[in-house]
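Table S2 (continued). Query chain:
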Amino acid sequence: MVWWILALAGAGLTRLILPSLFAIWQQAGFLRPNFRGEQIPLGVGVFLPLVWLILLPGVVWLVPEQRDHGLQLLLAVTFLTLLGMLDDVLGSRRVSGLKGHLGSLFRGRITTGALKAVMGGWLGLVLAWLEFQPRTGIGWIQTVLAGLMVALSINAINLLDLRPGRAVKGFLLFGGLLVLLSGLAAAAGFWLVTAGMLVAYLPADLKARCMLGDTGANPLGGILGLSALWALPAWGQLGWLLFLIGFHFLTEKYSLTELIARTPWLDYIDRWGRE
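Corresponding output:
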């Protein structure tokens, strides 16, 4: 019940903050063409760390046993938002895909995408270490695999953010599945609260009035990865990691948008609510 209250609060705060963000972005001229060529605000996903910062005292007060997780989540979301904003503002689209950015890095050319990949991977390892280091019997292999799971989760939502509402729907669907697999573990509440924020945000995204950008997609992926890290048992984390590896291989080889368009039930979900 407590997490539902926090989710409703998150939805209300998001509705309150979004109009101001839209106005700030418009005044600053931080607009980019969407897939239809329309100029709309990019990077409004910055609302995620703002709302989580406001909600964190409520998490500490109402769910004190999740205090440490709440602090870790806020720090991770803020860090990933900054990395995503760096890519939105300064990133080049001449290189795309995880393979492309890492390939550029190995050739001695640093891109914002490569910086995101390296720092996202390091963040995943740090968060996995923080989760496992107080326990006994957790080896470095499990820690590395868990860190990779978080890092690939961060990038997975970014890969979906190509059409209005797709990244949000992916977060809700993937996260909902993780919550069910976790047996409704308490730590999955962080996904629920974020879902509340996204339900309030989704209409604007579906109407193509704004874009999350990497500014929003990266922290959403981080929250998804942390939910898996904190709520799933070891076998569940391994299964999620294998799914993410397969998903990344698939998107490197094929166009995700074309695959969705050729799959009727995925195409229906993708188009639902879009104008």
